[in-house]
Amino acid sequence: MTTFADLIKSDKPVLIDFSAEWCGPCKMMAPILKQLKDMAGEDVRIIKVDVDKNPAAASAYNVQGVPTLILFKDEQIKWRQSGVVQAAQLKQIVDQYK
């Protein structure tokens, strides 16, 4: 099984979407992240993490609210933001680190 640590070791950007089933804004992020994937293709890996099912990962990164997006590259946090972020803005951020 791949661990969270394995996922963020990548030399290409990995965008983690910390979310929850009950969260309205999190549901808004799903089509935005699909749009980002369509635009960025293989430049970024997008992973959704349910904070209720993975509380250890959420607390390790001090995720207080959902959605929280964190961009990792080479195990380091390059960018993070809580709330809904539009695909075009996410693409600009990913492009800085690819």
From TrEMBL:
Q: Where is the Thioredoxin domain?
A: 1-98
Entry-linked CDD domains: TRX_family
**What InterPro entries does this protein's entry cite?**
Thioredoxin (IPR005746), Thioredoxin-like_sf (IPR036249), Thioredoxin_CS (IPR017937), Thioredoxin_domain (IPR013766)
Q: Does the keyword Glycosyltransferase apply?
A: no
Annotated TM spans: none
Q: Does the keyword Transport apply?
A: yes
What family does the Swiss-Prot or TrEMBL record give for this protein? Belongs to the thioredoxin family.
- The UniProt gene name for this protein comes to trxA
Arranged from A to Z, the UniProt key words for this protein are: Disulfide bond, Electron transport, Redox-active center, Transport
Q: Per UniProt, what is one Pfam family of this protein?
A: Thioredoxin
List the NCBIfam families hit by this protein, alphabetically.
Answer: thioredoxin (TIGR01068)
Species: Mucilaginibacter boryungensis
The name under which this protein is listed is Thioredoxin
